[in-house]
Amino acid sequence: MRGNKIALAIVSAIILFALFPDVFSPYDPNQINLDRALETPSLKHLFGTDNFGRDILSRVIHGARVSFFAGVTIAGISFALGTLLGLIAGYYGGPADELVMRVVDILLAMPGIIIALIIIGILGPSMPNLVVALASVGWVKYARLVRGSTLEIKEEEFVESARALGCTDFYILYRHILPNVISPAIALATLDIGSAILHIAGMSFLGLGAQPPTPEWGIMLRESIAFMETAPHLMIFPGLMIFVTVYSFNALGDSLGSRWRHYGTLGD
Fold this sequence. Notes:
Layout: H1 2-19, H2 21-24, H3 56-92, H4 94-108, H5 112-123, H6 127-138, H7 140-153, H8 157-164, H9 169-205, H10 217-224, H11 233-263
């Protein structure tokens, strides 16, 4: 329980950094000052400075905005698309189910990161293209999860009663089935934000995501390679930020998943 509270506090701090980076960052993240290049952490620059004299703390805080909003966008698109297709496949069955699940099988036959790399290769390296690429393969797990839950819920008595009363399919899906399958999908989305942030950092590290001089954690790690021995703080702080953020979202997602398993789903 205490670990969950810590994770929630860290996630809340990340959200505040993402929403109000200028409030928390002491300097302009892209302000170059070569006279202060590669300074170690001090009271003036708590995380030190990089090879261009830019304040690392400010770049880490502004990097939270890039990573968080991109991660939420990826998880949000994957959640919405996967939930919609899972509902349709599970409720209607037949050709709709076959089509959706065959696409899912094809996408699962290859590692999602490989498919994302192919899409990035076609569209070109940029953050919007990276979001599209990761969301294009991220929806499949939501579709499988929601489809399985829908297959169970649609056989419940309250759904049969709604059909007998002449309710439309849209009403039944929206009012009766969706509320009972949404909880595990939300828990998965929380986990997915952390996973998306990790993938964003990895892709940006490879030069396939955000591009310099954008303050992004993966870019900061890539730029620190040449200074691993002489200025290790360039690598430590963005790397630590990635670790703490991903761990916190995963812990929060696990907590939500545990609560869903404990309480189960309730018929309307």
